[in-house]
Amino acid sequence: MANSSTTNEGLEPKGLMKVITASSVGTLIEWYDFYIYGAMAVIIAKQFFPQDNPTAAFLAALATFAAGFVVRPFGALVFGRIGDVIGRKYTFLLTLLLMGGSTFAIGLVPGYAKIGMWAPVLILLLRFVQGLALGGEYGGAATYVAEHSPLGRRGYFTSFIQTTATLGFFLSLGVILLTRKSVGVEAFNDWGWRVPFIVSVFLIAISVYIRLKMAESPLFAKIKKEGKISSNPLKESFAKKANLKMVLLALFAAVMGQGVVWYTGQFYAQTFMERTLSIEFEQVRYLLCFAILLATPFFLVFGAWSDKIGRKTIMLGGMLLAIVTYFPIYKTMYSLADPKAKTEVAESSSTGTAVAVNAAGDSTITTTTVKAYTDGCTAKTVKKEVKLADKSKPAPKAETTKTFWLNSSGFWFMMFLVFIQILYVTMVYGPIAAFLVELFPTRIRYTSMSLPYHIGNGIFGGLTPFIATRLFDASKTTENPGGDPYIGLWYPILIAGVCFVIGLLYLPSKNDEDVSD
Amino acid sequence: MNSLKRLAGFIWIALGAIVIYLLFTQAGKEIAEAVAGKRVLLDTQMFWYIIIPIFLPIILGLLLFGWYAFKGEYDVIARDSEHLS
């Protein structure tokens, strides 16, 4: 490609910005649609999955979350093929409609209490459709922008597409917080959680309108005119050794590590703060919003920088920093919200008990303990015990809910620690679209780049919170009932470590400038 | 450098084989414990029934990657479409 006489000079800046805006807005909305589910995994577990076992309910919701990720590579194959045969424009229009329709429908599905097992089954199916649509979207948008970009600036222009995943997550957090504030916590947990799903239909309508006005990618239009379109992109991508080995290289030398660094920084950090540290719901979301807003411009910085010093250096640099610093970062996060390391102010702490008796004579005893600490942090523990009137029946297990509020300096320091992790995300993820586009030829680019991208991000990355939470739960023993809070980090560290070594050995250091072949 | 790339091919093949072995032995051990009532059966089964079918094809991909590396397929990375498709 570098020696080709054909050059890709790209569009005028004004035209290029139109292409970037139209592609990015649609992709951002698709990410928003995809993430609102994950951001509300705990509420969805209560609404759609059997309640008797909270761990099962939580894992079931995460599995549904994972199902959305696991299906993504199949979406990459289906829509990648369509994109390489019919064209980029109509393919990512179709994925947008599928994503919008399924998100809207999730907002309308009645809960488990009303329709029983149909509820989780319907949710699972709709989540599958979301995964398929997302699998087809990203490759199309990245390819479309890259094929419009001028030589030597592909990293910068495609990094706009790279911001959409993080901004989509930010938008989902913002809409959730706004809805929760507007309707109140109780109403939000009851029905308000549906609003962010239903809102999606309006966002999709705007995006479809914008995308309908776009023209086909110039490189695709050129090879179509010349009759060089692949008749079977799947066969060409994965049955030919010359191309298959590049697909494997993309996966094991770059995307696999990028995926785990991304999902650790944005999603495992959230799970860790909520499940392990019990930090209050809104504090966690505000903290994430600030960290994302501050880190997002760095996608563009590292994207542009990768045009100058190479994609490999920046991506592997991000991986190495993550590998080396994850343990110290998470240990510091833990210390900020560890009640055992704090001094209690006895006169500001309180304990109250309330007893409620139902018609059957069963009584629910709720004990609320609030502890204040000298540094301004607060912790609340609510223990609910049910005593049955019928003593012959076994009493249900007592439920304990812990909530921790960080003080002001703790909040900002925690935000900084999450910001650092998202900074690593911008390093590994900012240049990846340009890197993947440059690895494959135009006729099979959509298919070839989409599969490794979605295996790396969907499977290795998407399963990070699921696997890390599982490792944490498995570390709880009778001798250590609290478990090892850091054990989950071994998963991203090992995956990123293997990827770093493979990348260092096998990836070329120089960018491939010309993608017009 | 090319010798190192080829030699490392062995490591990726060995790594793939070790992960397959660990995956199946750990799954077998945990499911047996769950059947004996030491773990929650639903959680244990669900976890392994998701993990094994997903990761197995990917590990086979790693074995193939190692084989290609060992054969010297990555000594030179193709930069033009004639060599790719």
Write the layout of secondary structure elements.
The complex is a heterodimer of chains A (517) and B (85).
Chain A: H1 13-39, H2 41-48, H3 54-70, H4 72-85, H5 88-106, H6 112-115, H7 118-146, H8 154-183, H9 185-190, H10 195-212, H11 218-225, H12 233-238, H13 241-276, H14 281-295, H15 297-309, H16 311-336, E1 350-357, E2 363-372, E3 378-387, E4 399-405, H17 408-429, H18 432-439, H19 445-461, H20 464-474, H21 490-506
Helix pairs in contact in A: 1-5, 1-7, 1-8, 1-10, 2-3, 3-7, 3-19, 4-5, 4-7, 4-19, 5-7, 5-10, 7-8, 7-19, 8-14, 8-15, 8-18, 13-14, 13-16, 13-17, 13-19, 13-20, 13-21, 14-17, 15-16, 15-17, 16-17, 16-21
Chain B: H1 2-35, H2 41-70, H3 81-84
Helix pairs in contact in B: 1-2
Number of alpha- plus pi-helical segments of chain B? 3
The coarse overall form of chain A would be globular
Domain count of chain A: the total is: 2
Instruction: Please provide the ordered H/E string of secondary-structure elements of chain B.
Output: HHH
The portion of residues forming beta strands of chain B comes to: under 5%
Estimated helix fraction of chain A: 55-70%
